[in-house]
Design brief:
heterodimer, A: mainly alpha, Helix Hairpins, 74% helix, B: mainly alpha, two-stranded antiparallel ribbon, 20 helices, 2 strands, 76% helix
C-alpha cells in the first residue's frame, strides 16, 4: 500500500511538485497578512502552473522541434505548451506590476502593509 | 473577400488600435480621447448587429485568423448564442461610453483621464475577444486583458478605498485565472487541442478520466469566482461600490455578463450536456447554490445603507437567476436565462447609472441622504422606478419575461419547490427596490436632519449626456418586455444550440 503510493509519487513527481508549490502559493495568498507576501504567494502559485505545463510537454530524449530536410523523423518536444506559458508569464508579470503599484498607493494612503491594520484604517475613515 | 467577411476580426483589431490611438493623441491633447472611444465603440456596436443578422440568416460564422485553419490556427466563432451576447454587451458598452464623459470629469482626476479611456477601450477589447473566440487559450488571454484593465479601472476613483477594492479583486481574480489556466492545461493534456469545437468532439472518449473531471472543476470554480456566484462573491460588493460610476456600470453589466457567457460556453459547448448531466452530475448542485444565491443576495441587499452597495448585492442575487437556468438545463429555462443575461444587463445598467447621477449631483450614495429626491431629480427617479419594476419582475417588463420563462422551465422539469424560490426572490427584490422608492418619493427632504443639507442648490436633474442613456435603458426594459418575440428569434436558436440541437 505504502510502496505503491510511494511509486505513484516517484513516477509522477513533477506533477506532485507542481501541486505542492501551488498549495504553498495558495496558502501564502490566503493566510499571509502582509500584502507584498501575498503577491509573492501569487507568483509562486503562477509559477507552479507554469511548471505543470512545461513538465507535461517534456519528452524524454526529445530534441528541439526543428524541421529536418532529409525526412528524418526526429523525436521532438511539443513546443505549444512553451509558447502558451510564454504568454502566461507575460500576463503574470503584468498582474504583478499592477498589484505592486496598487500596494504602493495603499501604503501612501494608509501607511500600512498589514491586512488587518489596513482593514482597521479603512473602517476608521 | 469583402469587408463584411472581415467584420469579426475587425471588431477586435480596431478596438486594440483605437486604445493605442487614444494613448497617442492623449499625449497631444486630452480632448481627443473621448470622441475616439465613442466612435470606436459605436461602430463596434453597429458591426455586431450586422454580424448577428448574418448569423441568423446564414448560420454560424467561422473566421480563421490569418487564414490558418484550425487546429493549427485560431478561429473566431460566432453562432446565434454569442452573436446575441455580443450585441447585448456592445449595446451596454455604447450606453456606458455616452454616459461616461461627464461622470468621468467629476470622479477622476484630470491627468488620469487619458489612461481611463485607454483602459476602458482595452476592457471592451478583452470582453469582445472573450465573446467571439473559438479557442480556449485565446479565451484565457482575453480574460486576462479584460481583468487587468478592470483591476486598474476599479482603483481609478478619487476615493482611497478603491485601491483596496481593486487589490482584493486582483487577488481573487488571479486565483480564478490560475484555476482556469490549470483547467485548460488538463484539457490539453487529455486531447492535445485547444480548439473548442474539436475539444467537444474529442472529449467524450475520455469522460471517465480523472484529468477531465479535475479540468472541469478547475474551470467551473475559476469562472464562478469571475461571475461572483454566491459563495465566491466576496470581491464584488467592494469592487462595485468603490469604483467610479461609469466603471461600475461597465463591469456590472458587460463584464459580469461575458463571464457568465464564458461559463455557459465551457459547460455546454466544450463539455456538452451529456457530461454535466450524466458523467459528472453537477447541475443539481448548481441549482441548489443558485437558489441560495438568489435568497442570500437579496437579503444582504435589503440590509445595506448605501445605494451602490445595495445594487451590488442585488447583482449577486440576479446572477443566481442566470445560474438557475444553468441548473435546470432544459430549453425553456435556458431561454429564460439567456434573456435574463440581456435583461439584467439593461436594468442593472440603468440602476447603476441612476446611482452615478446621484453621486454626480449630490456627492453621496447613502440612502438616508436621498429623502425627497424625486422633487429635484424626477426623471432619474422615474428611470429607477421603471428599471426597478423590471428587477422585481412586474409585467410587461423584460425582467418579468425572463423570470416567467425560468418558472415555466422549472415547472417543466418538475422542480416546483425551486420555482417558489424564484418568486420569493422577486418579493425580496420588491423590498429593496421599494426602500429607495419610498425614500425618494415619500421622504421629507427637510425632516430629520433639521436642514443641514447645504448643497440643495446644486441638486437638479443630471446633464443630458448622462440622462439620455439612462432613460434609453429604462425604456428598453419596457420595449424588450413588450416585443419579446423579436428577441426570441435570436434567443430560441441560442438555447437549442446550447443543448446540442442545431
Amino acid at each position: 500500500m505504502i510502496e505503491s503510493f510511494f511509486e505513484l509519487f516517484l513516477s509522477r513527481y513533477n506533477y506532485w511538485m507542481a501541486i505542492i508549490l501551488m498549495l504553498i502559493g495558495l496558502y501564502a495568498l490566503i493566510a499571509k497578512q502582509n500584502l507584498v507576501k501575498k503577491i509573492i504567494g501569487l507568483n509562486i502559485f503562477q509559477t507552479a502552473i507554469y511548471l505543470f505545463y512545461i513538465s507535461f510537454a517534456e519528452v524524454r530524449g526529445g530534441t528541439a522541434p526543428i524541421y529536418t530536410a532529409e525526412g528524418v523523423h526526429a523525436l521532438y518536444v511539443n513546443p505549444l505548451p512553451h509558447v502558451l506559458i510564454l504568454t502566461a508569464i507575460v500576463v503574470g508579470v503584468s498582474v504583478t506590476a499592477v498589484a505592486l503599484s496598487l500596494i504602493v498607493r495603499i501604503y501612501e494612503e494608509y501607511g500600512v502593509l498589514d491586512e488587518d491594520e489596513l482593514m482597521q484604517a479603512v473602517r476608521g475613515r | 473577400m469583402t469587408l463584411a467577411d472581415q467584420l469579426p476580426v475587425l471588431l477586435i483589431a480596431i478596438s486594440i488600435l483605437a486604445s493605442l490611438l487614444i494613448l497617442a493623441t492623449g499625449w497631444y491633447d486630452r480632448r481627443f480621447c473621448y470622441p475616439i472611444a465613442l466612435i470606436t465603440i459605436l461602430s463596434q456596436f453597429l458591426a455586431s448587429i450586422v454580424i448577428l443578422l448574418q448569423v441568423l440568416d446564414g448560420g454560424t460564422i467561422r473566421y480563421y485568423l490569418g487564414n490558418w485553419s484550425p487546429p493549427l490556427g485560431i478561429e473566431l466563432v460566432i453562432d446565434s448564442f454569442n452573436g446575441f451576447i455580443l450585441v447585448a454587451i456592445l449595446l451596454l458598452a455604447a450606453a456606458t461610453i455616452i454616459y461616461a464623459r461627464r461622470s468621468v470629469e467629476k470622479e477622476i482626476t484630470p491627468e488620469k483621464i487619458v489612461s481611463f479611456y485607454v483602459l476602458f477601450q482595452l476592457l471592451v477589447t478583452g470582453l469582445v475577444g472573450m465573446t467571439i473566440t473559438g479557442d480556449l487559450f485565446n479565451l484565457y488571454v482575453f480574460l486576462e486583458i479584460s481583468s487587468i484593465a478592470a483591476y486598474t479601472l476599479i482603483a481609478s476613483s478619487r476615493r482611497s478605498h478603491s485601491y483596496v477594492a481593486g487589490f482584493n479583486y486582483l487577488i481573487l481574480g488571479s486565483i480564478a485565472a490560475g484555476f482556469i489556466l490549470l483547467g485548460i492545461g488538463n484539457l490539453y493534456v487529455t486531447t492535445g487541442t485547444l480548439n473548442m469545437a474539436e475539444l467537444a468532439a474529442m472529449l467524450p472518449a475520455s469522460y471517465h478520466l480523472a484529468t477531465v473531471h479535475s479540468a472541469f472543476l478547475f474551470l467551473i470554480i475559476g469562472f464562478s469566482i469571475k461571475v461572483a456566484f454566491f459563495p465566491l462573491h466576496l470581491w464584488l460588493p467592494d469592487a462595485y461600490t468603490e469604483s467610479p460610476s461609469a466603471v461600475t456600470v461597465l463591469i456590472s453589466t458587460v463584464m459580469a455578463k461575458v463571464s457568465v457567457y464564458a461559463l455557459f460556453r465551457i459547460l455546454f459547448t466544450v463539455f456538452t450536456t451529456a457530461y454535466i448531466i450524466d458523467s459528472f452530475p453537477v447541475t443539481g448542485f448548481i441549482l441548489l447554490m443558485a437558489t441560495v444565491a438568489i435568497i442570500a443576495g437579496a437579503v444582504l441587499a435589503i440590509a445595506q445603507e448605501d445605494l451602490k452597495r445595495m445594487l451590488a448585492y442585488s447583482s449577486i442575487s440576479q446572477i443566481g437567476y442566470i445560474m438557475f437556468a444553468l441548473g435546470v438545463t432544459n430549453e425553456i429555462a435556458l431561454e429564460g436565462g439567456i434573456l435574463h443575461i440581456l435583461g439584467h444587463a439593461v436594468m442593472k445598467g440603468c440602476l447603476f447609472m441612476v446611482a452615478g447621477v446621484i453621486i454626480y449631483r449630490m456627492g453621496t450614495s447613502r440612502l438616508s441622504d436621498m429623502k425627497g429626491l424625486s422633487k429635484t431629480m424626477p426623471i432619474s427617479c422615474a428611470a429607477f422606478a421603471l428599471a426597478g419594476a423590471s428587477m422585481i419582475g412586474i409585467p410587461p417588463t423584460i425582467g418579468f419575461m425572463s423570470k416567467y420563462y425560468l418558472v415555466l422551465g422549472a415547472f417543466e422539469a418538475g422542480l416546483w419547490p425551486y420555482a417558489v424560490v424564484l418568486l420569493i426572490g422577486s418579493l425580496l427584490a420588491a423590498i429593496y427596490i421599494w426602500r429607495f422608492i419610498e425614500i425618494a418619493y415619500f421622504g421629507d427632504p427637510h425632516g430629520g436632519h433639521g436642514g443641514d443639507h447645504h448643497g440643495h442648490a446644486t441638486e437638479r436633474e443630471a446633464p443630458l449626456s448622462m440622462l439620455a442613456p439612462m432613460v434609453g435603458l429604462a425604456l428598453l426594459c419596457l420595449i424588450f418586455g413588450i416585443f419579446v418575440e423579436v428577441l426570441m428569434q435570436a434567443v430560441a436558436p441560442a438555447a437549442l444550440l446550447l443543448l446540442g440541437g442545431a
